[in-house]
Write a structure and sequence with these properties.
The complex is a heterodimer.
Chain A lengths: L1 E9 L4 H11 L6 E6 L5 E9 L2 H13 L3 E6 L5 E12 L4 H11 L3 E5 L3 E8 L1 H11 L4 E6 L3 E4 L8
Antiparallel strand pairs in A: 1-3, 1-4, 2-3, 5-7, 5-8, 5-9, 6-7
Chain B lengths: L8 E3 H11 L4 E4 L6 H8 L5 E4 L3 H13 L5 E5 L3 H15 L4 E7 L15 H5 L5 E4 L6 H13 L5 E7 H5 L1 E3 L19 H12 L4 E5 L1 H5 L3 H11 L3 E3 L14 E4 L6 H9 L2 E5 L5 H4 L10 E6 L13 E4 L2 H14 L6 H15 L15 H11 L5 E4 L3 H9 L8 E2 L10 H11 L5 E6 L9 H7 L5 E6 L4 H10 L15 H7 L3 E5 L2 H13 L5 E6 L23
Parallel strand pairs in B: 2-3, 2-4, 4-5, 5-7, 6-7, 9-10, 9-12, 10-11, 12-13, 13-14, 15-16, 15-17, 17-18, 18-20, 19-20
Antiparallel strand pairs in B: 1-8
Classes of the chains: A alpha+beta, B alpha/beta.
C-alpha cells in the first residue's frame, strides 16, 4: 500500500543521504521525495512516498526514527490529509491544438505561464492523479516535457507535525 | 558554545586532547598519518591518555571493541585520512553489528581540499554512513569540543554503537577558546530506557501463565550490565534460560536453569526447548537468522514477549505479542518488582513436566566428542583451557569452527568474559580484540582461541603485543583447513573442497619467536594439558600454542540453513 511519510529533520549536510541510504541499504522503495527547509531554518521537512506491507512500513518508520538527524515523523496515510503536487508541463501548441490545449488547461485549472509560437508552458497543481489525468488527456503527441515536484502533504484538522 | 571570553585560544589538536581527557579516556588505539599529525603532536605533550600504536588500523578498532566489550567504557580510536579510514571500516562495521560503543576519530584533508581528490582523501562520512550509529564532519574548530561530547553520548547511550568523527587537518590547527560542555542534548535523539508499566504488567501475566516457558537472552544483557538482574529474574521463576552467542555469560552457564547456547550450533535442549515453548521471553536479543533458523518454522506455539532498547529490533524478523521498549536492566528490575509483588506463582506441575522433557533432551548429550582419538580434538583443547583457567579467563575468538567450539566448550559464568565477532563474523578479530581486553585488565588471563586462517588476517599485531608486553595466550586450533568452509563443503557441496585447504602455512612456532614471543607446537592429545599449564604459568610472556588438530572434525549439533530449530543434525 502507498504511504506518505512526512519527516522533520535537522537541516544538516548529509541528512538527505542518510535517508536515501537507509532506503537503498534495506531495499525499501522510494516513489517520490521532496525536501525543503521549514519556517525554522534549522529544520527541513521531507515528504516521502513509499509502498510496502504493513510490516515493511512499520520497519521504515522505526528505522527512520532511529536516524539521529530525524526529529519527528508522521505517516500521513493513517488519517485524512491534503495532498498536492505541482507540475510544469511544456506542450506543443501549433495549429488547431493551440486553442484545444488552452481549453484543456482551463478545465484542469492550469495556468499558461509561457507562450511561444510553437509551445506553451502550463503550471498545474493538484493531487497526483489529477496531474496524471492532464498528461493522459493531452497525449504523447502534444506533451514535450514535464517536471513534477513530487507530492506535498499535510494532515487535516488538529493533527500536526511540528516540534 | 565552546568559546567563552575567558582563557587563551588553543589549537583544535589541543582541544581534541583536552576533550578526551575531560571525557575520562585512558586508552586510545591508533595509527598516525599526515592528516592527524597535529593531534599526535598534542598527544606527545601529555601523559594522561596512553596511545597504543597498532600495526594496522583494523586492529585498532578491534582492540577498542575488546576494550569496550570487557568493560563499561567506550573504545576510542584515532586514525588518519584515506587508507587509515578505509582500513578502519571493517572494525567499524563489526562494532555496528554487535552494538559496541566506540568513538572513532578519522583525520581528513584540509577543508579547502575536500572534494578535490587530494592525497589520502576519501569520503569517510559517505563510506561509513551505513555502518555507524552516527557520524560527524567537523567544519569549524568552535564545534569540535561539543561534537566530541555528542559523539561519546550517542555512542554509549540507547542501543550503543560506533560514532565516527571526521576532523579536517586545518581544523586541528585553528584556534579557539576551549570549554568542554558539561551536558549534552540532542533534540532528535532521546532513547527510551524505562519500559512502559502497562506492558510490563501484561508481560508478567503472560509469563506467569506459561506451561513451557523459555527465556532467550542476547548481547543486550552484556551491554547493559544486566546479568545480575537476569539471574534474579530467572531464579525467581525457575524457568530455563538460553543465551545467544553474544549473550554468553549473561546467565551463569553452570546454573541448573541454563540450557546453553541456542541457534545454528546451539544445544539440542536449547533449540528443542525454543521450538516447543508456549511462552518465549526474549530479552536484549534480536532474532538473528543464525538463531531462528527458518523463520517460518520458528517457535510455532509460542506467545512472545520482547524487551529491547531498540524499537526497530522489535517485530523486525518475528512478530511479537508483547513488545517492551526499554533498557533491559531497567525493564528486568521492573519485572522483578511486579513479580515479587504478586501472589501468583508459575504453574508448578506444568513446570515440573517441562523440566522433565528438557532433561530428556539434555540426555542426548549433544556436545559429546571422541575422547579416545589419537589426534587432538579441538573440543578437548577448549575444554582443557576452561578447566585450567577455572572458567574465569577472558576469552576472545576469531570466526569459524574454533569460535563455535569456544562458545560450546568454555561455559561462562560471568558476563563480559567472552569477546567475539557475532554479527559481522570478522576473521582477524581475535588477536587485536584480546589486546584491548588486556589493556583494560592488565592482570587478568586473556586467551585467544583462533584458527590458522583467522590468525593470519591480523597476525602483524604480534608486534604490538611485544611493544606493550601483552602476555596473551593464543590457542591456534590448526587443522590446515578453513574449517567452517570445509564443513559446509562436506555437507552441502559433496566434498568439493574449493579453496578451503591452505598449503604453505608458516611455521607458527618460529613466527611467534620471530616476533619475540614464545611458540609451542602440540601434536598429541596427551600433551595438551601440560602445554596449556606451562603457557598459563608464563605470566609475563605471550605464548602462541599451535595445536595440530583433527582436520576432519565438524561442529555439532547443527541446524542446516533453511531448517527449523527442531531439525538439528546431531553427531
Amino acid at each position: 500500500m502507498r504511504h506518505i511519510i512526512s519527516i522533520l529533520m535537522e537541516n544538516e549536510s548529509g541528512a538527505l543521504s542518510r535517508v536515501s541510504g537507509l532506503f537503498s541499504a534495506r531495499g525499501y522503495n522510494i516513489e517520490a521525495l521532496t525536501v525543503a527547509p521549514t519556517e525554522d531554518p534549522s529544520v527541513s521537512r521531507m515528504t516521502l512516498v513509499t509502498n510496502g506491507t504493513e510490516q515493511i512500513i512499520e520497519q521504515i518508520t522505526k528505522q527512520l526514527n532511529k536516524l539521529i538527524d530525524v526529529i519527528k515523523l508522521l505517516d500521513l496515510t493513517q488519517d485524512s490529509h491534503i495532498e498536492r503536487e505541482h507540475m510544469l508541463i511544456k506542450v506543443r501548441a501549433t495549429g488547431s491544438a493551440r486553442e484545444e490545449v488552452k481549453r484543456m488547461a482551463d478545465i484542469f485549472r492550469g495556468t499558461v505561464v509561457d507562450v511561444t509560437d510553437a509551445s506553451y508552458i502550463i503550471e498545474l497543481t493538484g493531487a497526483p492523479d489529477k496531474l496524471d489525468a492532464f498528461i493522459d488527456t493531452l497525449g504523447p503527441k502534444l506533451v514535450l516535457e514535464t517536471v513534477r515536484s513530487g507530492p506535498l502533504a499535510i494532515a487535516r484538522g488538529g493533527r500536526r507535525l511540528a516540534i | 558554545m565552546s568559546s567563552t571570553p575567558h582563557g587563551e585560544p588553543i589549537t583544535g589538536a589541543e582541544i581534541f586532547v583536552r576533550s578526551l581527557q575531560a571525557q575520562g579516556v585512558k586508552h586510545l588505539f591508533g595509527y598516525p598519518g599526515g592528516a592527524v599529525l597535529h593531534i599526535y603532536d598534542a598527544l606527545y605533550k601529555q601523559d594522561q591518555i596512553e596511545h597504543i600504536l597498532v600495526r594496522h588500523e583494523q586492529a585498532a578498532v578491534h582492540a577498542a571493541e575488546g576494550y569496550a566489550k570487557s568493560t563499561d567504557m567506550p573504545g576510542v580510536v584515532l586514525v588518519t585520512s584515506g587508507p587509515g579510514a578505509t582500513n578502519a571500516v571493517t572494525g567499524i562495521a563489526d562494532a555496528y553489528m554487535d552494538s559496541v560503543p566506540l568513538v572513532v576519530f578519522t583525520g581528513q584533508v584540509p577543508l579547502p581540499l575536500i572534494g578535490n581528490d587530494a592525497f589520502q582523501e576519501v569520503d569517510t562520512i559517505g563510506i561509513t554512513r551505513p555502518c555507524v550509529k552516527h557520524n560527524f564532519l567537523v567544519k569549524d574548530v568552535r564545534d569540535l569540543a561539543a561534537t566530541i561530547k555528542k559523539a561519546f553520548y550517542i555512542a554509549t547511550s540507547g542501543r550503543p554503537g560506533p560514532v565516527v568523527v571526521d576532523i579536517p587537518k586545518d581544523v586541528t590547527a585553528h584556534r579557539c577558546v576551549f570549554e568542554y560542555p558539561e551536558t549534552v542534548e540532542v533534540r532528535s535523539y532521546n532513547p527510551n530506557v524505562k519500559g512502559h508499566p502497562g506492558q510490563i504488567k501484561r508481560a508478567v501475566d503472560l509469563i506467569l501463565s506459561a506451561k513451557r516457558p523459555m527465556i532467550y537472552t542476547g548481547g543486550g544483557i552484556i551491554l547493559d550490565h544486566a546479568a545480575a538482574e537476569l539471574t534474579e529474574f530467572a531464579r525467581l521463576l525457575g524457568y530455563p534460560v538460553t543465551n545467544t552467542l553474544m549473550g554468553l555469560g549473561g546467565f551463569p552457564a553452570s546454573d541448573k536453569l541454563s540450557v546453553g547456547m541456542l541457534g545454528m550450533h546451539g544445544t539440542y535442549e536449547a533449540n528443542m526447548g525454543m521450538h516447543h515453548s508456549d511462552v518465549l521471553i526474549a530479552i536484549g536479543a534480536r532474532f538473528d537468522d543464525r538463531v531462528t533458523g527458518n523463520i517460518e518454522k520458528f517457535c510455532p506455539h509460542a506467545k512472545i514477549v520482547h524487551v529491547d532498547i531498540d524499537p526497530a529490533s522489535i517485530s523486525k524478523n518475528v512478530k511479537v505479542d508483547i513488545p517492551i521498549v526499554g533498557g533491559v536492566k531497567s525493564v528486568l528490575t521492573d519485572l522483578i518488582e511486579v513479580l515479587k509483588a504478586t501472589s501468583e506463582r508459575p504453574d508448578a506441575d506444568a513446570l515440573a513436566a517441562w523440566w522433565e522433557q528438557i532433561d530428556e533432551w539434555r540426555s542426548a548429550d549433544c556436545l559429546r566428542f571422541d575422547r579416545a582419538a589419537e589426534v587432538i580434538k579441538p573440543q578437548f583443547v577448549v575444554e582443557t583451557l576452561w578447566k585450567l583457567t577455572g572458567g574465569d579467563a577472558f576469552v576472545t575468538s576469531d570466526v569459524g569452527q574454533h569460535q563455535m567450539w569456544a562458545a560450546q566448550y568454555y561455559p561462562f559464568d560471568k558476563p563480559n568474559r567472552w569477546i567475539n565477532s557475532g554479527g559481522l563474523g570478522t576473521m582477524g578479530f581475535g588477536l587485536p580484540s584480546a589486546m584491548g581486553v588486556q589493556f583494560a585488565h592488565p592482570d587478568a588471563t586473556v586467551c585467544t582461541i583462533t584458527g590458522e586462517g583467522s590468525i593470519q588476517m591480523n597476525i602483524q599485531e604480534l608486534s604490538t603485543c611485544l611493544q606493550y608486553h601483552l602476555p596473551l595466550k593464543i590457542l591456534n586450533l590448526n587443522n590446515g583447513y578453513l574449517g567452517m568452509v570445509r564443513q559446509w563443503q562436506e555437507f552441502f557441496y559433496q566434498g568439493r573442497y574449493a579453496m578451503s585447504y591452505m598449503e604453505s602455512l608458516p611455521d607458527f612456532v618460529k613466527l611467534a619467536e620471530a616476533y619475540g614471543h614464545v611458540g609451542m607446537q602440540i601434536e598429541k592429545p596427551g600433551d595438551v594439558e601440560g602445554a596449556i599449564r606451562e603457557a598459563l604459568a608464563m605470566k609475563d610472556r605471550l605464548v602462541f600454542m599451535n595445536f595440530l588438530t583433527d582436520p576432519t572434525e565438524n561442529v555439532y549439533p547443527m541446524i542446516p540453513a533453511g531448517a527449523g530449530q527442531n531439525e538439528m543434525i546431531l553427531i
